Q: What sequence folds into this?
């Protein structure tokens, strides 16, 4: 028991680290140099807002009792009636709410008003995430996805990744494309940040997946036995799926585009972790590798869809989190074993189509719930305070426009020349030269 | 006097410098620059999206030499910087009106 509590404190800190700073670094490196600070700020401010809101009503909506969509929102208001000995569970769930909201930010890079994000974040958490967390994680008898449908979701394939992925897609459609997309250069400005962020996400994910163990009232020896055997399984599955997804992504990339890239490896890490999130407790090692490979390969292909379908999901939240989340959640229906946490056999182990059906229904509910409610919130904001940054501010750079800062001093004498500004000043071959990448600092350049 | 300006591939820079030193060139100005010629940059792929990067990194060398040495210096640069592939760069020679050494005020040939 003592060991479990100690572990949960560490796991909670690990999951908070996934947002601040891991996700911020992962996204920040992929964004342009003129918008990296805003990209990172969206994660940081989401943590602050959602964290306080979660303690206020989030825990109560999720865990105060039964309910199809959510429990009593005011019963445990501001943790009234929750023992401090249980705070660690509140904090753990809080970090899940935080990262789910922060994940969305990657889709809206460069162009969403900071004020609109600050209003969107609490509304979305309240209306979409808190109910979804109840439906999936509280797993009361009436809770829709876990209790009624009986879909397995160990750590949040539906509640976190599908949820954030769908919300990202809806928000992108309401917000529109960035100016110049897809014709202009919008290369990642610093892939070392992205590699670092992906590695930290992976590290934090052990808190996310392994910490998601739920007990069924075991005590004493039985408790310890369950704790040790299940965390061993989820830790190993999380690790192997990620390895497989790196290879899957790189393989597809090598075949489709000729080169295995560092961004591909970083993206493979995240795709694999996303896909194994719902399945970490349900599958054996072979299943984990299969799910990781499938997620890596499918996501590597899916990130290209935005160009064909014409939606500017800037940092591929849809291609990685929605697709990876769906892959992992559905494949539970194939690779789940009755020895796992859910005690259900999937298609491959003679369990028939029952599990697959429940998983598919769980996915459908998550997609529809998140899609419809995000659209309502997004539309309401677009019609009132507005979502979109002013066009001139967008071209000059959102860091300067919204935060009054620039991330890098690219105009000092020591960094001029090919290793400094000019090397990143790129233009599409087909259009006249314009300083896309250095746009944010051009006004300084004139004065310097 | 002549100003020899050479724009070459970065990976040939060390060899060119050595050859010029062996020849006896007293000094030069070197900068990292970006640009493009016939090769028109290169392509980079990020998550499947191809980007044409128009500007590629180059090294620019500027040397002021006696009229008599200009042809030899150009020859050395061309010989050592050449790989035979597109993007090797260019060398050009321009006339220099006068040169002053800042430290001493010496002029022209004695300032080189």
A:
């Amino acid at each position: 028991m003592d060991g479990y509590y100690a572990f949960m404190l560490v796991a909670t800190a690990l999951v908070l680290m996934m947002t601040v700073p891991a996700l911020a670094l992962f996204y920040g490196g992929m964004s342009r140099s003129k918008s990296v600070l805003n990209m990172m700020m969206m994660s940081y401010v989401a943590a602050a807002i959602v964290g306080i809101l979660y303690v206020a009503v989030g825990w109560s909506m999720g865990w105060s009792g039964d309910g199809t969509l959510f429990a009593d929102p005011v019963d445990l208001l501001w943790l009234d009636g929750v023992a401090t000995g249980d705070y660690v569970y509140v904090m753990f769930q809080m970090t899940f709410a935080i990262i789910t909201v922060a994940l969305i930010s990657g889709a809206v890079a460069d162009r969403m008003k900071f004020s609109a994000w600050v209003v969107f974040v609490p509304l979305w958490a309240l209306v979409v995430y808190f109910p979804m967390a109840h439906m999936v994680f509280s797993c009361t008898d009436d809770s829709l996805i876990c209790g009624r449908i009986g879909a397995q979701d160990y750590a949040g394939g539906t509640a976190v990744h599908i949820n954030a992925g769908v919300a990202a897609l809806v928000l992108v459609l309401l917000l529109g494309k960035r100016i110049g997309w897809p014709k202009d250069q919008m290369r990642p400005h610093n892939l070392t940040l992205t590699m670092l962020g992906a590695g930290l996400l992976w590290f934090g994910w052990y808190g996310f997946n392994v910490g998601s163990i739920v007990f069924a009232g075991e005590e004493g020896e039985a408790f310890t036995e369950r704790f040790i055997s299940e965390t061993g399984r989820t830790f190993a599955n999380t690790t192997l799926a990620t390895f497989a997804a790196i290879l899957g992504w790189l393989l597809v990339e090598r075949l489709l585009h000729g080169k295995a890239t560092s961004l591909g490896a970083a993206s493979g890490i995240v795709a694999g972790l996303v896909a194994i999130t719902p399945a970490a407790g349900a599958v054996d090692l072979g299943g984990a590798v299969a799910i990781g490979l499938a997620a890596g390969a499918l996501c590597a292909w899916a990130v290209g869809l935005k160009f064909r379908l014409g939606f500017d999901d800037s940092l591929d939240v849809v291609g990685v989190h929605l697709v990876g989340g769906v892959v992992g959640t559905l494949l539970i229906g194939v690779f789940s074993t009755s020895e796992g946490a859910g005690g259900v056999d999937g298609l491959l182990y003679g369990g028939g189509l029952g599990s697959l059906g429940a998983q598919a229904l769980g996915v459908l509910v998550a997609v529809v719930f998140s899609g419809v409610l995000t659209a309502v919130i997004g539309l309401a904001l677009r019609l009132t305070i507005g979502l979109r940054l002013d066009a001139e501010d967008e071209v000059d750079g959102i860091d300067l426009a919204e935060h009054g800062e620039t991330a890098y001093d690219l105009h000092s004498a020591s960094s001029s020349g090919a290793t400094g500004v000019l090397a990143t000043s790129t233009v599409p071959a087909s259009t006249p030269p314009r300083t896309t990448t250095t746009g944010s600092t051009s006004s300084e350049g004139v004065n310097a | 006097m002549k100003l020899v300006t050479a724009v070459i591939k970065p990976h040939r820079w060390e060899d060119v410098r050595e050859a010029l030193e062996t020849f006896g060139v007293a000094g030069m100005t070197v900068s990292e620059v970006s640009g493009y010629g016939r090769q028109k940059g290169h392509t980079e792929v990020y998550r499947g999206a191809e980007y044409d990067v128009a500007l590629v990194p180059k090294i620019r060398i500027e040397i002021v030499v006696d009229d008599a040495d200009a042809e030899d210096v150009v020859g050395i640069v061309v010989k050592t910087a050449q790989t035979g592939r597109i993007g090797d760069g260019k060398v050009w020679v321009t006339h220099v009106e006068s040169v002053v050494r800042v430290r001493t005020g010496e002029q022209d040939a004695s300032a080189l």
User: Anything to note?
Assistant: DSSP finds two helices and six strands in chain B.
